């Protein structure tokens, strides 16, 4: 934003990490001059980022389908990290509700599947029993690591205050 600048790059710099980021809002209409004008008028650009202490060998941005609203562009950012045991595919997204975008995320991640694990993370605007997240687990074969590590916790995150220990959320 005009006020804060490139937050991901600032965080990476202060933490001594590497960063790759990609914007979504600069593809609002898919017409470069118009999109640049709109982003400038809004005063911010939204997207995804991946911060890593390991080298970033490659990265790619994928446009996700506009399943619910045309004026709500979403992306998936992929980074290949060079880990000591080999490459790791990492994905970051901020997806809309529903299964349409999650299905595409699963397709992309499976297409880049390597020998080792892959990591898909982000804000899916969904509960764990939503069709999209069920699809990622059942059809694409991903494991919900939070649920695996915390089988009995509710996993609520929407509007959780970070300065208190007790839950302040209901979904």
Q: Major beta sheet, specifics?
A: 4 strands, mixed
Number of strands: 6
Radius of gyration: 17 Å
Low-confidence stretches: none
Fraction in helix: 25-40%
Q: Which percent band covers the strand fraction? A: 25-35%
What is the secondary structure topology, with strand pairs?
Blueprint: H1 7-15, E1 18-23, H2 32-42, E2 47-52, E3 56-63, E4 75-83, E5 86-94, H3 99-111, E6 118-123, H4 131-138, H5 145-149
Parallel strand pairs: 5-6
Antiparallel strand pairs: 1-2, 3-4, 4-5
Helix pairs in contact: 3-4
Your description of this structure?
The protein has 171 residues and is α+β, with helices and mostly antiparallel strands. Helix content is 27%, strand content 26%. It has helices at 7-15, 32-42, 99-111, 131-138, 145-149, and strands at 18-23, 47-52, 56-63, 75-83, 86-94, 118-123. A hairpin with a 2-residue loop joins strand 4 and strand 5.
Question: How would you briefly describe this protein structure?
Answer:
By secondary structure, this protein is an alpha+beta fold.
Descriptive keywords:
6 strands, globular, two-stranded antiparallel ribbon, alpha+beta, 171 residues, four-stranded mixed sheet, 27% helix
């Amino acid at each position: 934003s005009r006020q804060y600048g490139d937050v991901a790059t600032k965080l990476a710099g202060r933490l001594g990490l590497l960063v790759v980021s990609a914007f979504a809002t600069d593809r609002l209409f898919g017409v470069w001059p118009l999109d640049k004008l709109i982003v400038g008028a809004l005063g911010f650009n939204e997207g995804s980022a991946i911060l890593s202490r390991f080298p970033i060998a490659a990265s790619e941005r994928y446009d996700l389908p506009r399943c619910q609203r045309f004026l709500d562009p979403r992306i998936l950012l992929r980074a290949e990290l060079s880990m000591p045991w080999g490459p790791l595919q990492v994905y970051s997204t901020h997806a809309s509700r529903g299964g349409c975008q999650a299905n595409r995320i699963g397709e992309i991640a499976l297409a880049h599947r390597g020998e080792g694990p892959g990591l898909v993370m982000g804000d899916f605007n969904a509960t764990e029993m939503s069709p999209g997240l069920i699809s990622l687990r059942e059809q694409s074969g991903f494991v919900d690591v939070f649920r695996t590590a915390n089988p009995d916790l509710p996993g609520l995150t929407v509007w959780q205050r970070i300065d208190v220990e007790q839950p302040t959320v209901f979904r």
